[in-house]
Amino acid sequence: MYIDNITNAQRAEVLTAALPYIKKYYGKIVVVKYGGNAMINEDLKQQVMEDLVLLHLVGVKIILVHGGGPEITDMLHKVGKESKFVDGLRVTDSDTAEIVQMVLAGKINKSLVNLLGTKGGKAMGISGIDAHIIEAKVKDERLGFVGEITKVNVEPIVNLLNNDYIPVVSTVACDNKGNVYNINADTAAAFIAGALNAERLISMTDIAGILKDKDDPTSLIPLIDVNEAKELFNDGTISGGMIPKVECCLEAISKGVKKVIIMDGRVPHSLLIETLTDEGAGTMVVKEKK
Q1: Of 5, 82, 94, 199, whose CB count within 10 A is highest?
Q2: Are strands 166-170 and 89-90 parallel, antiparallel or unpaired?
Q3: Which domains are seen in the chain, by residue range?
């Protein structure tokens, strides 16, 4: 049913149906991780920004944490540097770290802030380097300046929320020596959501969620708890690129986030489907099923 083809009475019914969910999330913190291939389609990006602004305007405290792997790869290609990966993480020498900072904290961060502004949002772009929001150390010598998070300072994010901004956080970090680190966006979002005791962490990806059969999108598991997730690690159901994503979900839950969602960011208005309807989207991870 297209919105242009429904009556005013039907529009009113749609808005009224959303009211219980708006009340549920009013004043609550929701961290949205956005990155990778979910950012590539420009039409979908426009819809995601509209969803974020709508949620913000109805009183949800939204934080947008973003990556940008494809754009980093594209920029490295333009300057003649080959992208190398170990265990799914980008090998980051000092030159690559500079490019990561330029692309994430510069181009992508400010373009998202600008886009939110065009949709009527009030956004402020910051990086993990600002006020040492994210501090890190070397994760693995083989990876160079890929960081393992050692400390999170969410005070600047809280200040922005209290002044009615949408904080837009790029996932670069630093240490006390001035080194800059590339941080996995899922990991950064989990740590930030945990430090904020967020109501939800929503990870927008390019897959439907956790699947019983990775080749069958209809085998989506809609709800899973921590113990069930560990069982799926052990039996190999969770494998490959899904491993770090689910590990970040468990990290967030362990840090106090109430619910974590892995969902397909390529589905139009999936954020609203997840937050403002009974249907939900993707896989929800909780500490324990009730």
Answers
A1: 199
A2: unpaired
A3: 27-286 (3.40.1160.10)
